[in-house]
Amino acid sequence: MARDWDVTRKTVGTLSIWVGTAALFAPRALPRLLGAAERATRTDVLLPLLVRLAAARNIAMGAALLVTPAPQARRTTEVTLLLTALDAAAVLAARRGGEVAPRSAVTSLVVLGTAAAGAVRWHRR
Predict the structure, then answer these.
(1) Whole-model pTM?
(2) Which site in 23, 75, 81, 117 is 20 to 30 Å from 108, CA atoms measured?
(3) Nearest to 25 by CA among 45, 51, 46
(4) In the predicted model, what is the mean pLDDT of the chain?
């Protein structure tokens, strides 16, 4: 059980850093790849700032997960999974407004489901 927890912590931490780094250096391309409207990714002046803010948060949370010893990182993992779920929910809300492509909604549902399952699993332990 402790090994599963450690693998989850390291996996979530590493993914957070990779996604954050990609978003930090490609703040217009990554949203386009994930299904944001082409027009918005080219013209919205706030998009790069908002994407980079989220990227910085992802990198910080990922680093916190990787450097904190497994027994103390439980709360950090739960917070990271909660923030991931909130991000996915925000994409789903934007989809309802017609601002993102259907593939983003599908990706967000997968992320939301995975994050929710992870949060519930680790909260119960």
Answers:
(1) 0.73
(2) 75
(3) 51
(4) 80
